[in-house]
Amino acid sequence: MKSSKVLFSMFFLCYVTNLFGSSSINGIDLLMKWETEPVRTLYLYKDITATEIIFHPLIDMKDLQVNEKWYVENNFYGMMAYMAGVRTNDKKLKTYGIKILDFAMRQQNEKGEFPEKNDIHHSLAFYYEIVARFLILSEKKGFSEDVSPEVINRLRYGLRRGVIWFAKESSWNDKYWRDELHHRYLLNASAILLSQLALGNLPPETLNQAYKWINIASKRQLPNGIMTEKGGHDSNYQSLGITFAIGMLMVCDLPDREKKELESLAKNATNWLQTRISDSGKINDSGNTRMGGDSKEINRTDGKLKRIKPYEHAFALFGASYYFNDSRYKRTAENIMRFYRY
Fold first, then answer.
1. Contact, 258 vs 216, CB < 8 A?
2. 3-state secondary structure of 120
3. Which whole number is the average pLDDT over 234-256?
């Protein structure tokens, strides 16, 4: 009898591990663990204690307004502030994060767009993807009690309206669409599929567009794992692509084909990223086509030369380590944190 129980326990452990890449944590809990990693705070703050802000996405929190340099993707950072507040039990940080997220949705028009002069679709993809992450965790993990029903309803309504508009080819296939930028396919798919989990009942044609983007991303990945940006490799945008893929894998109910494609894509992409990071944690950005290396690409939101963001590499690797239950990725992420003195 005892041996039967042991065999059953081993079977159940393997079953759960195959489902979630972890022997004891379900998908939502994995996402929660990942989003509250201290490294996530570094997207907005200079240190993990969230005391010195790097980038202020709004002109003035007392007099919220949009200027000619505003992009809705800037308000992506509200999620990082909010989750830093969750991690540190800091109500002020949570309130600040909600204000940033809600401020952006208040700017949305009836179509689901935002008042930007160029590349509207890509900018709002970042924002919708992060709002979906926020709603999933706030409602599945009970955070919504910290947020007024009015704000939650505005985020939900705006997100539904936005992603339905966003998925129509007449919306995304405009003069700004860049099919040579691999991460965009995964970002777009993630924005839709995380919204489906957060909201439910998105139209079939909206979901089918997300699956098409996954299919294209999978097909375009090189055999060595590189997801090309402007015809070459870029470790930073590779990290972003991994982040979007892992988020979908953790929590979304995917068709078999798309799940297999994403798992293969994410695994191969992460293995390639590993080759760009030394045992000490230093990132090799030589040859990067867009961030660091010899790239001269300018950040449109602040006008500065794009440089690699080590914390984005680390965040992607932490996510991959949780989903695939692979300690190698976690060690590499920790090495990055040490090397860059986070």
1. no
2. helix
3. 97
For the segment 56-104, what is each residue's pLDDT rounded down to a tens digit?
555 444 445 666 677 888 888 899 999 999 999 999 889 989 999 999 9
pLDDT of 119 higher than 80 = no
Number of domains in the chain: 1
Distance in angstroms (rounded) separating the CA atoms of residues 114 and 27: 32
For residue 283, report the phi and psi dihedrals to the nearest 5 degrees.
-90, 130
Q: What is the pLDDT of residues 200-244, one digit of tens each?
A: 999 999 999 999 999 999 999 999 999 999 999 999 999 999 999
In a domain, residue 1? The reply is: no
Look up residue 6 and give its two tokens.
């042991």
User: Contact, 233 vs 226, CB < 8 A?
Assistant: yes
Cβ contacts of residue 275 below 8 Å, gap of 6+? none
DSSP 299: P
Query: What size, in residues, is the chain?
Result: 342
Eight-state DSSP code of residue 150: H
Residue 286, in any domain of the structure: yes
C-alpha count within 13 angstroms, C-beta hemisphere, residue 63: 2
Q: Is residue 5 in a domain? A: no
Three-state SS sequence of 123-145:
HHHHHHHHHHHHHHHHHHCCHHH
Report whether 334 contacts 342 (CB < 8 A).
no
What CATH number has the domain bearing residue 148?
1.50.10.10
Mean local confidence (pLDDT), 119-137: 91
pTM exceeds 0.85, yes or no: yes
SS3 160: helix
Q: How far is CA 107 from CA 49, 75, 112, 219, in A?
A: 30, 11, 10, 36
pLDDT in tens, 280-328: 999 999 999 999 988 989 987 777 899 999 999 999 999 999 999 999 9
Residue 3 domain-assigned? no
Structural domain harbouring 307: 26-339
